[in-house]
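Changelog note: in this version the structure field was regenerated for every chain. One regenerated record is shown below for reference.
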Amino acid sequence: MNGIQSLWERMSAVSPAPAPWIVQVTAVVAVILVLEPHAWRVTRNVVTIVHEGAHLVVALLFGRTLKGVRLHSDTSGVAISSGKPTGLGVVLMTFAGYVGPAVLGLGAAWVLGTQHAVAVLWIGVVALAAMLILVRNLYGLFSLTVVGALLFGLVWFGTQDQQVAAAYLITLFMLVAAPRPVLELQRQRARGAAPESDADQLARLTRVPGIVWVGLSLLVTLSCLALGGWWILRPVGG
């Protein structure tokens, strides 16, 4: 019982607001991780994990049976579930992937505002542990293990300042990174290189053109970036 209580105290610990320079530096680092090509080849794997995780969460919410998830070294992935092949649940599950990182970032920004920065890290640890149960290939196992180990190391061994800085970095990275895969998707579609993309699957499910779904995904990710960024950076500016 004491162990459970101690774990809960760690997960729900209140964190002091970081110094303005910490938020500013993490924002700059987040932008670099997205815009610098070599860094993006690595960090995009994290976005893929969240993308596929979003598919799985929505599938579960609509009563679908989760079968597995695969993550590949080219930063692509696939979430596998079974259930009705059409309907609102399938549409929302398919749409969730590209907007998932932005929605996660927005939620994390709200949690940061409650001064529970460490909870952002714990949510990541729990989500990755759940995905480990469903992973079906070696690269996916490697990716989830590495990211999960880094997060667990921070929540268990990191100092409070390190945990707060990491939570802000992860949140800002998710918000900044989310629009880029949407833009990359449309470039691929324009070359005819992504006929089975989420947007094209949505077009077949709804008869709404794929470009509309791309535009809606971009609108959601940019809106989350604007709102989440404002929530985080407004106190710094004030």
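Spot check on this record: The chain has a mean pLDDT of 94. The chain is about 75% helix and 5% strand.
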